[in-house]
Amino acid sequence: MQTLDLCELSKVDSILLDSVLKYSPSCAAFKNLSGQFVRVNSKFCHLFELTEQDVIGKMEVDIFQLDTSEDVNKIDQGIVEQSDFFEKEIEVFIKEELRSFVLIKFPWLTSQNQVCGIGCMLTEVTHVKWLEKNYGLAQKVIENSSEAVVFTDAQGLILDVNNAYQTITGYQREELIGKNPNVLKSGRHDRNFYQAMWAQIRAQGHWSGEVWDRRKNGEIYPKWLMINAMMDEEGNATGYVGIFSDLSDQKKAEEKLEELSFYDPLTHLPNRVLFHDRLSVGVSIAKREKHLLAVLLIDLDRFKVVNDSLGHNVGDELLELIAQRFLTLGRESDTVARLGGDEFAVLLPELSSAEDASVVAQNFIDSLQEPFCFGGHSINIGASIGVSIFPSDGADVDGLIKRAELALYKAKEQGRNTYQYFSQELQDAVFEQLEMEEEMRHAILNQQFTLYYQPKISLATNKITGMEALVRWIHPEKGLIPPDKFIPLAEESGLIISLGEWILQEACRATAEWVKKYDDKLVVAVNLSAKQFKSENLLRTIQNTLDTFQLDPKNIELEITESCVMENVEKALQTMKDFRDCRLRLAIDDFGTGYSSLGYLKQFPMNTLKIDRSFIMDLTPNSDDAAIVEVVILLADKLGLDVVAEGVETDAQLTFLRAQGCEYVQGYLLSRPLPADEFEVFLRDNV
Ligand code: C2E
Ligand code: CA
Ligand code: CA
Fold first, then answer.
1. What tens digit of pLDDT does each residue of 417-474 get?
2. Domain-wise residue ranges, the chain
3. Cα 527 to ligand 3 centre (Å)
4. Strands 674-675 and 585-591
5. Assigned architecture for domain 263-422
6. Staple 244 to which of 25, 141, 223, 228, CB 3.0 to 4.6 Å?
7. pTM of the model
8. CB neighbours (10 Å) of residue 410?
9. Running DSSP on this structure, what letter comes out for residue 185?
10. Which fold is adopted by the domain 11-130?
11. Contact 221/246 with Cβ under 8 angstroms?
């Protein structure tokens, strides 16, 4: 290899070389033709932590501690002989860190174009490599992200979009590039919305929020959009990145959830929760604006009968049809809700006078006038309505609803298809009832109840064959309270169960004594309320009581009303059969006032029909009532049942009944209900 001494460099070449070394952004070194380093720049020394003296005069093999000089020599020889240059990416461990460089070797030429050595440039590309690698990764992530990503320039024109962006918007990349993303606008947001959004991006560099856009197919959809500005060092926006996800599915799920929590799934009317919410808002507004508001509680009459007799499917369908009719009434601002079961409610948020509510209430009642015809059924249903007015009846949600409930209760009591406003008297009456209920609890414990007995006489023998036990309440202050005043209340509050047990015990105790003393065929009639008749423990309670007083089942007759049986015929029939199997006697009380079908009557295992007092009351020959009584007596005879006429007060009635072949009678004419001791006297004289 020919060597060239450095002194052969011209002055100009040397100065030039110094400048290149000094200002080169890369590490640079020059070797002479013998392969020794003759010039090196400070960047080079710095990189390898060497001084200039360490490098000058050394070979590449020494500096980089290479095992062999073969490769270096071959490359260098090629450069010198072909005046060519060499470029290669290399990786070097520097302080245990692998760093990437581009190595360029080139012939070192003198001004006479003679090769005098080899120049080496080492440019670090470690971070470029890293970026390349990671940018590729980032791009892959963006491309495959389920969120839509869009890049725009500083003017907001689209530079690129990812796959998700195309899928969600329905547009192809080519259709979007160069366009403004506002091609997606749905028109749901006004100018102010977009102005505020851009104002925030300019001020803070980012914005996020819910936006409604339009897909290519025209469908409007919600999305959660984030926009970030990309800034240069001076803080100027060089472009924007928008990222969004499609909220349609989430919205649908939210709506479904809302539907479930605020609407009745059957009728799609607002439910109790939403009704209370609207009422609470309505009350606040009415308070502020000083106007009236009304709450109407609607309860369907006899819905339970429909449900029980025709089945729940028919019941459900009926409720849906009723809801549809209700929805056509009232104004748009009114809320019609279904609170549950057969209970509906209406909110009239703005009234000019309290009387206006009555027009609405009447409309709701009238809307049910026409029967509902579906699935081969024609169903007539009525409604009772309770009305409360803000602010006179209550100042808040609970107060107004409670008062409307009281009014509804009253409307129900008054007969069906009526509405009632809340009033103070109503409140007093209810208060009195509550008080009575409380007193009744104590009355059971304090033995304030007593039984009266009314004799039942056989018309064939004019003798007593039995007696009806009738309960009385001897109130310490109010005196004797008749059962009509407290039995319904006991029934409603559930107290009837314990009261009923006491009645049964007392009747059995007394009867067992009289049976022993006077007549072992004597039958005591004990009234059973509907709740008692339905109770699971009834039969066991009766048997236990009979056992306790050693009374034979033939000495007791249980009176149940027609309506109590008709409520659930199947169940009642089973209970009645169980009674018969235990040799207990059964009577149908108040016969003629309910609506038993003759078909059922034949199946019922019972012993006695008691003709209701109302038919006996106005008994005159050839009247309708006379005809009915006549037929019932005949019917009982055909079915092999005993028949008892109740409420016989006059001789005329008695004569008529006797003529028709009625077997037994009960009534004031023969005896009023008597306290036990007085009854015993009557019994002794009449057995
Ligand atoms: P009910 O079972 O129909 O009882 C007959 C009612 O008619 C009794 O009224 C009796 O006093 C009355 N009465 C009897 N003869 C005549 C008459 O000639 N003229 C008139 N105007 N009335 C007459 P009471 O004792 O006031 O009982 C009323 C209702 O209370 C009973 O009607 C029954 O449904 C219920 N009740 C009475 N005691 C009991 C009981 O111990 N348990 C249950 N669950 N209910 C009872
Ligand atoms: Ca009775
Ligand atoms: Ca009766």
1. 999 999 988 888 878 888 898 999 999 989 999 999 999 999 999 999 999 999 999 9
2. 11-130, 145-251, 263-422, 441-686
3. 9
4. unpaired
5. 2-Layer Sandwich (3.30)
6. 223
7. 0.54
8. 21
9. B
10. Beta-Lactamase (3.30.450)
11. yes
